[in-house]
Amino acid sequence: MDERAGVWRSTVSFYRSIVGGAVFALAAVLFGRPELLVIAVPFLVFALAAALNRPTAAPTTTVTVPTAQVTEGESFVLPITVRSVAGMEHVSIGVRRDFWFRCDPTPGIMQGGCASIGEVALPMTMTPTRWGIREISAAYVMASDAWGASVLQQHHQLGARVLAVPRTDVALSSVPALAASGLIGANRAVKPGQGSEFAGIRAFRPGDRMKDIHWPASLRSRDLQVISHWSEQDGQVILVLDAAADLGISGGIDGAPSSLDTTVRAASAIAEFYLRRGDRVGVRIVGQGPFNNTVRIGTGKAHYRRIAERLAQVETTLNRRGRTDDRAQGVPPGTLLLMLSPMAGAGALTQAATYQRRGAHVVVIDTLPSVGLGAGVDPTQSLHWRVRALERAREISQIEHEGLPILPWEGPGTLGTLERVIGHLQSAARVMRR
To answer: How many other CB atoms are found less than 10 A from the CB of residue 188?
Structure first.
């Protein structure tokens, strides 16, 4: 913590008492008015007592950020400790923080008295109201003596950053789950392999194992037939986030969400849901530039923390310069791919159709806010948005007609509908495959 120690400075009241006492005393002598001397004495006594009891040392302030990561809406206590000095009676502390921090007390200022020399604890409760990297930049300390004649100001440079991960609000016990068709998670890989699950019977090829020969089928066809198996590896769940535009004005956890708020929170909820079921989940973020926008396939609680941390670092300031095109590479056929997008442009739907043509099970989740868009003061802007909304509805209708399901995100309850849609896609794919 960078601390700039202040010095004790005299207040206006101290100078006023000196000037006032001197003026009344001088007037009493010049004009022979002893009653004016009675008025001057309290001012001079106050000034003398304040000067004799003026603090000489500066207090020591300690501010420690207890955590580096919290969930948005989760409160933590910022411990602030001030070690008072002789003559010091009152201290006030203010914290300069990110806009998306809510403090208790609300102004972000703590006050306390110093009855004796020792440490004064002034804990402040802070709550991040939106996901992202939130900064607590500085703390300001103002102390005063018992006479109110001296004040001291200190500036402490903190530069602390707190990573607020998105809140999911997922009640996993209330979401209906389909029967798992794989060995670990619910989404089985669709590629053949050396597993134990029966896939079909095919003609013998060099390299097949003798124990896989199916003798009844071989006798009927008079050619060697072997049993094929599906891979023991479960399928992948890939979340593709369209972060190229942030539509709407975010109100934090207590207000209306923007499109990027809905996208990030929905991705966090879906990732947690599938990871808890044992599936392997990966994340791709498009529209944010070419660097560090992929979380590799993984599973487990530690992997969810990696996903949540990456989602919390999505930059909203670069959205309008980002790209929405993402080459559909590294997505094997049969992968469950969930695209979360406000579909502000046709590029997201075109990209989803590309993934589907490559054999992935694609579901588009609409993250556009249902209210608060196009309600600007500018009539031209409102008219432009209404026209774009009509074009968007036509594009969605066309892509749905081609067989690409689109679901609006309406909170964690959407997971139940999503599971039914995915179950239908995978059952249809299994019928075609076998």
So the answer is: 22
Question: In this structure, what CATH number is given to the domain that contains residue 29?
Answer: 2.60.40.10
Same domain assignment for residues 180 and 199: no
According to DSSP, the β-strands at 150-165 and 2-4 are antiparallel
Strand duo 80-83 + 119-121: pairing? antiparallel
* Number of Cα atoms under 13 Å in the Cβ half of residue 332: 12
Of the listed ranges 34-48, 66-80, 260-274, 372-386, the one predicted with least confidence = 372-386
The answer on 293 and 213 residing in a single domain is no
Give backbone dihedrals phi and psi of 424, rounded to 5 degrees, phi first. Answer: -65, -40
- Quickly tell me which residue has 């993402």 as its tokens: 326
pLDDT in tens, 347-356: 778 888 888 8
Residue 83 structural domain: 1-47+54-165
**How many domains are there within the chain?**
3
Closest CA to 122 of 131, 112, 114, 132: 112
The pLDDT of residue 357: 84
Cα 155–chain centre separation:
29
Within this chain, do residues 301 and 427 fall inside the same structural domain, yes or no?
yes
Phi and psi angles of residue 412, each rounded to the nearest 5 degrees, phi first? -60, -25
* Cβ 369 vs Cβ 326: under 8 Å: no
Confirm if 339 and 363 have CB atoms less than 8 A apart: yes
359's tokens: 């054999």
Instruction: Report the alpha-carbon distance of residue 361 to residue 377 in Å, rounded.
Output: 42
- Encode pLDDT of 88-135 as tens digits: 889 999 999 999 999 988 888 888 888 677 888 888 999 999 999 999
Token pair 């998670």 in the structure block, residue: 185
Report the alpha-carbon distance of residue 223 to residue 120 in Å, rounded: 89
Omega prior to 105 cis, within 30 of 0: yes
Task: Return the exposure string of 109-140: e unless at least 16 CB atoms fall within 10 Å of the residue's CB, then b.
Answer: ebeeebeeeeebebebebbbbbbbebbbebbe
Do 352 and 399 touch, CB atoms closer than 8 A?
Answer: yes
